[in-house]
Design a protein that fits this description.
Blueprint: H1 22-37, H2 42-47, H3 54-61, H4 69-78, H5 84-97, H6 112-121, E1 126-131, H7 142-151, H8 159-176, E2 187-193, H9 195-198, H10 204-220, E3 224-229, E4 243-249, E5 255-262, E6 265-269, H11 272-288, H12 292-305
Parallel strand pairs: 1-2, 2-3
Antiparallel strand pairs: 1-4, 4-5, 5-6
Helix pairs in contact: 1-5, 1-6, 4-5, 7-8, 10-12
Length: about 300
């Protein structure tokens, strides 16, 4: 059973710093979690002489300042972390947070809510997602993503601006997919409603290529686990949101977050009771979906229906 401890990411509406990568966000959230678990205020930590000011502590916890290993480990030890394994993980996250973020050059097409998702994806141990209407972003082909983005392009742009905007957004999506092709990818679990398979985004050729790629992901990648919810499932297949993603992160204790995507925006769930609700829903949807063998059969049937 996954822990219900929330991971607090950058608060909604806060300006992303662009300084630390997702590792910094995960580490800052862990330090805040440790402090609050002990009932300590920022002023208490300053009074103990562990850090110079409440403002500095806040910047560390919210990942808006470069992290120093000495400071992070001093805070962790003050909060009672003694296990060498967890301290080593924290030191590793400090080093990882200094890595330049690749999406920095795409700020014109990566809004703050998406920047936060990309940054934490990079540090995830596992990702579970449910999609009702479309193929999950990390599994989309370039043509499929392009077709979606052309439909949802920003108003007020001329044709050339729309084309440039779409191509840059597609590039971001394809670079993101490198996460699943890295040497140490997260375990990725995707539950897709069968409705998404019949929605001919981009036309017959585009959706056929997309479904073939889904089949290949499931058949050939041990860390990618794909399941389809068939049409014949009833009301029990209804989900609390059309797009839900649950991410967990490596640490001495489990940390996690839930991300809900809506058109042109995203929300991060932090309240424990809400986290439990969405996580249980994802588990139920996974159990309700077709097994691996039947999922591949469903995909094959839809692919064959598009041949010719």
């Amino acid at each position: 059973m996954l822990s219900s401890q929330p991971l607090f990411v950058v608060p909604d509406g806060a300006k992303p710093s662009g300084i630390p990568a997702g590792a910094g966000r995960v580490l800052g959230a862990r330090l805040r979690q440790l402090r609050e678990g002990l009932g300590l205020r920022g002023a208490d930590v300053v009074k103990a002489g562990v850090i110079g000011s409440v403002a500095t502590l806040s910047r560390i916890e919210n990942a808006i300042t470069p992290l120093r290993e000495e400071t992070v480990l001093a805070l962790a030890r003050y909060y009672g972390v003694t296990e060498a394994e967890e301290l080593d993980v924290m030191a590793g996250l400090v080093h990882k947070s200094h890595t330049d973020v690749w999406w920095g050059e795409f700020h014109d097409v990566v809004p703050g809510w998406m920047e936060r998702l990309i940054s934490v994806e990079a540090s995830a141990k596992s990702i579970r997602t449910y999609q009702l209407q479309y193929i999950p972003g990390l599994l989309q082909t370039g043509p499929y993503a392009r077709a979606l983005m052309q439909v949802h392009s920003e108003p007020g742009m001329n044709a050339a601006q729309v084309e440039r905007n779409v191509e840059r957004r597609v590039q971001v999506r394809l670079i993101r997919q490198g996460l699943l092709q890295s040497s140490s990818p997260p375990q990725y679990y995707a539950v897709i409603d069968e409705n998404a398979l019949v929605r001919r985004v981009g036309g017959t050729a585009v959706i056929r290529e997309q479904l073939r790629q889904l089949y290949s992901w499931e058949e050939n990648r041990e860390h990618v686990h794909l399941r389809i919810i068939p049409f014949d499932r009833g009301a029990e297949a209804l989900a609390p949101a059309a797009s839900m993603t649950h991410l967990t992160f490596p640490s001495g204790r489990e940390m996690d977050m839930v991300y809900l995507e809506v058109p042109d925006s995203g929300t991060y769930v932090t309240r424990t009771q809400d986290l439990v609700r969405y996580k249980l829903s994802l588990t139920s949807l996974w159990q309700l979906a077709a097994d691996r063998t039947e999922t591949l059969r469903i995909l094959e049937r839809h692919i064959e229906g598009l041949e010719g």
